[in-house]
TrEMBL record, chain A:
Coiled-coil intervals, chain numbering: none
Organism: Bradyrhizobium uaiense
SUPFAM superfamilies: S-adenosyl-L-methionine-dependent methyltransferases (SSF53335)
Pfam families from the UniProt entry: MetW (PF07021)
Name under which the protein is recorded: Methionine biosynthesis protein MetW
Gene3D superfamilies according to UniProt: Vaccinia Virus protein VP39 (3.40.50.150)
Domain of life the protein comes from: Bacteria
Entry-linked InterPro entries: Methionine_synth_MetW, SAM-dependent_MTases_sf
Residues in the signal sequence: none
Phylogenetic lineage: Bacteria, Pseudomonadati, Pseudomonadota, Alphaproteobacteria, Hyphomicrobiales
From TrEMBL, chain B:
Span list, region Disordered: 1-23
UniProt-recorded name of the protein: Homoserine O-acetyltransferase
Taxonomic lineage: Bacteria, Pseudomonadati, Pseudomonadota, Alphaproteobacteria, Hyphomicrobiales
Cellular compartments annotated: Cytoplasm
Catalysis performed (reactions): L-homoserine + acetyl-CoA = O-acetyl-L-homoserine + CoA
Residue spans of biased composition, Basic and acidic residues class: 14-23
Organism field: Bradyrhizobium uaiense
Domain of life: Bacteria
Domain AB hydrolase-1: 64-373
């Protein structure tokens, strides 16, 4: 797995509001003020800074040394580590929320990581690029190549992203491991939410990325 | 084997060093019979003294004090010419004008540890009861004892809360002990290349060093000063063995390889044909000029006994429960004395106790000693951490609050 390169959003760069990325604002909005948050794969710490500015007690894990250095310079509490190997060392219920932003597709064992997120945190917030997005489909259908976009430019043989999925795939995984989806938002090419009242297949087709607020499922489904 | 040369006797007579043990060329805080240092071994040490240096000015709020804890063979002379060796301060990459720990901004304190030989009370000091050097009559001291003594010094300097406690190796152990023993007195800590407990391998290396000292016939059961000898060979061997552990295979290879020392061909003898041998002998012989053999025994022992978790029913996280201190933990990839795994164990415990911790592993081939060297990435992260913590502490760029 690698958070080594900053994992960019697919498609065009998302719009910024008040200096913050839209997907970060959406995530921040999902977090109750005053809670404790672990951001796994926190990159340069931009999301953590946004959270701390809202009175949220944030911690981070980041694989790249540059990322860690940048975070420490911002006064953030960030530990150098790897989501695949280090999450097991965190105790149960250590955080209110564990965030995995644009990192799931780069983990070796997304299912294990997801299970760990909801063991360490009461809730998890997961965002990932949607490979069911129509432009991705078109590239494979018409071009016959693995999809590449401006912000996911790596070829199949040198990408850090090894476990791409679609929104539909992710929803199925959540059901399989008994994870409750409290909230799901699909963001379009510009980082704007796809309207809520549309069916899943539309989200899966027109969502550039999915952002999910998850909690532990109850007894059975 | 006519051309075998043993490790030479110290060039400087040990008079300078012996004098420093009781009359240091630095500030001294003396504690009388009414203020004993309560040692873990059960002894009340009194009277005793702590030799220390300060750099910079304490601000009006007394909020800009940084305590630097030195490593096994370090001392209080962190940023001035050493009175015995004449060399620059031992941490001139980290401390000084324009450096991460800048005397223009912080009030910097560095004290010689209890058990040391540069002016704080230790086995090389005079025992007031006998008028002779303490030697092995000196009680066994621990890392918590060192920190307890430092806390008494900080009290005397009128500082309630230290802005930061900083140290590497044995200094890092003291840093961690500070947070475990006096969490409310430490705003931030920088714990470098250290561990919450001394590993079996490290105890083994220390035992090797101690046995080398004690096997030297000039050690005389620790009474070498009374008998006018000095176990310089044993101490030099101990230092040579230890010095290897401070480096790395890659660093030794890069620095020396198999290169010969001032010769083209092997001499077919046990002389120092290889550069690496010559280097180690130099390290050994220069060390004995400035360090007391008994002190070496006591300080290595203190590190061996260190185990924070043991004081908390074996659960490390309990040592840090509810702590508000900001931690920055740093390790180095090629450090095999205090490997990254030790730092990670500490970080996991801090995470489990919800402490505010940052951790960085720095890539370098320079081994354990990297913390004393010019490793830019390490110095940058130290600076960044101190600046951010200073901001949280309300310190301005000039150290005022």
């Amino acid at each position: 797995m690698s958070m080594q390169q900053t994992l960019p959003l697919p498609g065009v760069a998302p719009e910024r509001t008040g200096g913050y990325r839209r997907d970060h604002l959406l995530v921040a909005e999902m977090v109750r003020p005053g809670s404790r948050v672990l951001d796994v794969g926190c990159g340069d710490g931009e999301l953590l800074q946004l959270l701390e500015s809202r009175g949220i007690d944030g911690r981070g894990i980041e694989l790249s040394r540059e990322g860690v250095n940048g975070c420490v310079a911002k006064g953030l509490a960030v530990v150098q580590g790897d989501a695949d190997t280090d999450l097991v060392n965190y105790p149960d219920d250590a955080f209110d929320y564990v965030i995995l932003s644009q990192t799931l597709q780069a983990t070796r064992q997304p299912k294990v990581v997801l299970e760990n997120l909801l063991r360490i945190g009461q809730r998890a917030i997961v965002s990932f690029p949607n490979f069911g997005f129509w432009r991705m489909r078109l590239q494979l259908l018409i071009g016959g190549h693995m999809p590449r976009t401006e912000n996911l430019p790596a070829s199949w043989y040198d990408t850090a992203n090894i476990h791409f999925c679609t929104i539909k795939d992710f929803v199925e995984l959540c059901e399989q491991i008994n994870v409750k989806m409290e909230r799901a938002v699909a963001l379009d090419l510009y980082g704007r939410p796809v309207p809520l009242n549309l069916p899943w297949w539309v989200w899966n087709m027109f969502g550039e990325q999915g952002v999910f607020l998850l909690s532990r499922g109850g007894q059975g489904k | 084997m006519s051309n075998v040369r043993p490790i030479p006797s110290p060039q400087t007579q040990s008079d300078d060093r012996a004098h420093e043990a009781d009359h240091p060329s630095s500030l001294v805080a003396k504690f009388g019979m009414d203020q004993p240092l309560k040692l873990d071994c059960g002894v009340d040490l009194a009277p005793f003294q702590i030799a220390y240096q300060t750099y910079g000015e304490l601000n009006a709020d007394r909020s800009n004090a940084i305590l630097i804890c030195h490593a096994l063979t370090g001392d209080q002379h962190v940023n001035n010419i050493h009175p015995v060796t004449g060399k620059p301060g031992w941490w001139d990459t980290m401390v000084g004008l324009g450096k991460p720990i800048d005397p223009d901004k912080y009030f910097i304190i560095c004290s010689n540890v209890i058990g040391g030989c540069m002016g704080s009370t230790g086995p090389a000091s005079l025992n007031p009861a006998t008028g002779k050097m303490w030697g092995l009559d000196f009680p066994i001291i621990t890392i918590p004892d060192m920190v307890r003594a430092q806390a008494m010094l900080i009290d005397r300097l009128g500082i309630a809360t230290l802005f930061c406690v900083v140290g590497g190796s044995m200094g890092g152990m003291q840093v961690l002990q500070w947070t475990a023993a006096y969490p409310e007195r430490v705003f931030a800590t920088l714990a470098i290349a250290c561990s919450t407990r001394h590993s079996a391998q490290n105890i083994a290396f220390h035992e090797l060093g101690r046995q080398a000292v004690m096997a030297d016939p000039d050690w005389r059961g620790g009474r070498y000063v009374d008998e006018d000898t000095h176990p310089h060979r044993g101490l030099a061997v101990a230092r040579m063995a230890a010095h290897i552990t401070y480096l790395s295979d890659a660093a030794l290879h890069r620095k020396f390889g198999r290169r010969m020392q001032d010769r083209e061909l092997p001499t077919f003898s046990f002389d120092a044909d290889f550069q690496v041998e010559s280097y180690l002998r130099y390290q050994g012989s220069s060390f004995v000029e400035r360090f007391d053999a008994n002190s070496y025994l006591y300080l290595t022992r203190a590190m061996d006994y260190f185990d924070i978790a043991a004081d908390h029913n074996g659960v490390l996280a309990k040592a840090f429960t509810g702590i508000k201190t900001r931690f920055c933990v740093v390790s180095f990839t090629s450090d095999w004395l205090f490997p990254t795994s030790e730092s990670r164990a500490l970080v996991h415990a801090l995470n489990a106790s919800s402490a505010r911790v940052s951790f960085a592993e720095i890539e370098t081939d320079r081994g354990h000693d990297a913390f004393l060297l010019d490793v830019p990435e390490f110095l940058e992260i130290s600076l960044a951490f101190l600046l951010a913590a200073g901001k949280a502490r309300g310190l301005k760029d000039d150290g005022q609050s």
